[in-house]
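Ticket #4471: structure output looks truncated?

Reporter: J.K.
Steps to reproduce: submitted the chain below (160 residues) through the standard prediction queue, then opened the result file.
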Amino acid sequence: MKHNDLADETTATIDSDRFPCRSLDGVVIGILLGFSPDGSPLVAFSGNPGEQALAARFTTRPDASDLGCEVALLFEGGDPQRPVLIGVVRRPERRDAREMTIATVDRQQLVLSAEQEVVLRCGRASITLTRAGKVLIKGDYVSSRSSGTQRLCGASIEFT
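Returned output as attached by the reporter:
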């Protein structure tokens, strides 16, 4: 079978006379252009054979908010027809490192961490944790239930 024989659009190979087979080593920066009907990300990159978007396998799934963003690509066996999207390229925001928010998920625990405060908000309800050790719970209706002992401990408890 010659390189320019086409089985179908998704398995088309490049014409070796027009696009000599070259190996792509290392990370290549491309652009996320869209998604195929099966949900595969469609990517383009400099030196893209055939100059059409290629469906890529992925290690992390991009979403619609990533369209038009730069993506980091590797290639199976160095083959430019077999891109693997390894991530969306992010640029650090211009903030002081002390203000950065950190979120960690390990399937057992979710840790949200910030230098000044953490706020969880939904509509008119919120829970705020401050650097000074305050926990502020606000809402139109606050309910606290326990199937076991419920304890209130503090240096002082004020009822208003």
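Triage note (M.O.): checked the attachment and the full token line is present. DSSP finds no helices and eleven strands in the chain.
Status: closed, working as intended.
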